[in-house]
Automatic annotation (TrEMBL):
PPIases accelerate the folding of proteins during protein synthesis. Keywords: Calcium, Endoplasmic reticulum, Glycoprotein, Isomerase, Metal-binding, Repeat, Rotamase, Signal. Residues 38-126, 150-238, 262-350, 374-461 form the PPIase FKBP-type domain. Residues 531-557 have a biased composition (Basic and acidic residues). It comes from Serilophus lunatus. This is peptidylprolyl isomerase.
Length: 557
């Protein structure tokens, strides 16, 4: 009916109006609340006469009008015309004189019996009985903990007035807003609105003025008595009293040993912020992170978080900033006061004092003869890292591995692990890096890697003392040179030397250093005795190893 009345006015003047004429020429699609009697409202308006002449405007003053509607603080026509309005609704109001300034008017501004025309836009509505309005927009599936008073929070936000006018945004500054909750650093509404949030949660928080900036507003961006709307994304939070939080994602059933202070640990990790942003990863470098724990080489939170890990364990370590990089952060990827989450996979660990760990898998019965230093052994092996990564295997070749124990031809830990073995015995050896390939590693072997060997002894031959290529089982012949000089020509060529040594071995009078190539051993013996390298050995050149050793002692004396 009121809209119809406006149409009549356009056609002709029907006479004096009895009530306010309202034209709701813009109504927002969403209207969460309508202004009721006793509500506090903020609005802009232009006031004109029928001929279009302006008599007043809040726009010209650069400030909205704020007041309580329906309680007689406004002219009666405005009190009636503003009720039922939504935020952002626009109305044309025609106020007859008896509902405006009547027969008196306003001196110098509004003549007596003037009909007033108002163009109004509603900007804010609230009531002293209002409460904080919190709406959860999204929430992560996992939420182990929520914000409490005294927590330190990092969050992004967009701040607008109730009509949608933006006044501030952390996104535009390129950094989160960081502060304590419940300690008076925030307006009361935000202190309350952040409580109970999960990291990664998004909320809409509508704050009435008495829980925001009240009658004074804030600077030029927040008017007095303004309701505020914050769209908040909680990035992370912690409490200054927090310690390291551990989550055991996967622990091997067999865990014979756990890491302690002083151990050297090799592990892979993904490092993320609480919102899931990846800031670092050892996987991207295809190389483990290697360090001592409990020694201060890494951030305190990781020093603590790696204590007690098992080999092969997967663990999540949540580190508060005071045990990580603190208020300053690190580089451009870890913000100040950031909580860090490390998803860790332990590859191996050892202690610099560790010996070789030997586990006998099978030992034949009635084993009386075992390997000793300088013995020549043949064995099969499989070598892997502790995470199961295969490195080498003798089964990839046609025959077993051969080595003289103590000849420095294999890593020290393997040499130790092959001692005191019976033929047919099988062992598992765990060899720490200082008895393997050390910090530098080797081709195919990472630096500081603990190695796992599965070994089986195939055969063994008794060795000879270090430095010897041949030893006599008894006393050597007194006329050694004459017996060796088979054709009695005063010189012993390689053929005669080889034939003589082979005869001694065949008759059990002596033995060669065990080797897969006895001919080479004999050739080396001949070369050692042929001191002038003329292809034959003279009586002056032929000397026993024991005689040579005595000469050296005499020279030293």
């Amino acid at each position: 009916l009121l809209l119809g009345t406006l149409g009549v006015l356009a056609l002709g003047d029907p006479g004096p109006l009895e009530d306010v004429v309202i034209d709701r020429y813009y109504i927002p699609k969403i209207c969460l609340r309508e202004a009721q009697m006793g509500d506090f409202i903020r609005y802009h308006y232009n006031g004109t006469f029928k001929d279009g002449k302006k008599f007043d405007s809040s726009y010209d003053r650069g400030a909205t009008v704020a007041g309580v509607v329906g309680v007689g603080r406004l002219i009666t026509g405005m009190d009636r015309g503003l009720q039922g309005m939504c935020v952002n609704e626009r109305r044309h109001l025609i106020v007859p004189p008896h509902l405006g300034y009547g027969s008196i008017g306003v001196a110098g501004l509004i003549p007596p019996d003037a009909t007033l025309y108002f163009d109004v836009v509603m900007l804010d509505i609230w009531n002293k009985n209002d409460k904080l309005q919190v709406t959860t927009l999204s929430k992560p599936e996992r939420c182990n903990r929520t914000v409490e008073n005294s927590d330190f929070v990092r969050y992004h936000y967009n701040g607008t007035l109730l009509d949608g006018t933006p006044f501030d945004s952390s996104y535009s500054k390129g950094s989160t807003y960081d502060t304590y909750v419940g300690t008076g650093w925030l307006i009361k509404g935000m202190d309350q609105g952040l409580l109970g949030m999960c990291a990664g949660e998004k909320r809409s928080i509508i704050i009435p003025p008495f829980l925001a900036y009240g009658e004074k507003g804030y600077g030029t961006v927040i008017p007095p008595q303004a309701s505020l709307v914050f769209s908040v994304l909680l990035v992370d939070f912690h409490n200054p009293k927090d310690g390291v939080f551990l989550e055991h994602l996967e622990v091997p059933e067999s865990c014979k040993r756990r890491a302690v202070t002083g151990d050297f640990v090799r592990y892979h990790y993904n490092g993320t912020l609480m919102d899931g942003t990846l800031f670092d990863s050892s996987y991207s470098r295809n190389q483990t992170y290697n360090t001592y724990i409990g020694k201060g080489y890494i951030i305190p939170g990781m020093d603590q978080g790696l204590q007690g890990v098992c080999m092969g364990e997967q663990r999540r370590v949540v580190v508060p900033p005071h045990l990580a990089y603190g208020e300053n952060g690190a580089g451009d990827k870890i913000p100040g006061s950031a909580v860090l989450i490390f998803d860790v996979h332990i590859i191996d660990f050892h202690n610099p004092a560790d010996p070789v760990e030997i586990e006998t898998v099978f030992r034949p019965e009635g084993c009386n003869v075992t390997t000793r230093h300088r013995d020549f052994v043949r064995y099969h092996y499989n070598c892997s890292l502790l995470d199961g990564s295969r490195l080498f295997s003798s089964h990839d070749y046609e025959k077993p591995q051969e080595v003289t124990l103590g000849a420095n031809k294999v890593i020290e830990g393997l040499n130790s692990g092959l001692l005191d073995m019976c033929v047919g015995e099988r062992r598992v050896l765990i060899i720490p890096p200082h008895l393997a390939h050390g910090e530098s590693g080797a081709r195919g072997v990472p630096g500081s890697a603990v190695l796992r060997f599965e070994v089986e002894l195939i055969s063994m031959e008794e060795g000879v003392p270090e430095g010897y290529l041949f030893i006599w089982h008894g006393e050597p012949p007194t006329n050694l040179y004459e017996q060796m000089d088979l054709n009695k020509d005063g010189g012993i060529p390689a053929e005669e030397f080889s034939a003589f040594i082979k005869t001694q071995v065949a008759e059990g009078k002596g033995r060669l250093m065990p080797s897969s190539d006895p001919e080479k051993v004999i050739a080396d013996m001949f070369q050692n005795q042929d001191r002038n390298q003329d292809g034959k050995i003279t009586p002056e050149e032929l000397k026993l190893k024991s005689d040579e050793d005595q000469e050296k002692i005499h020279e030293e004396l």
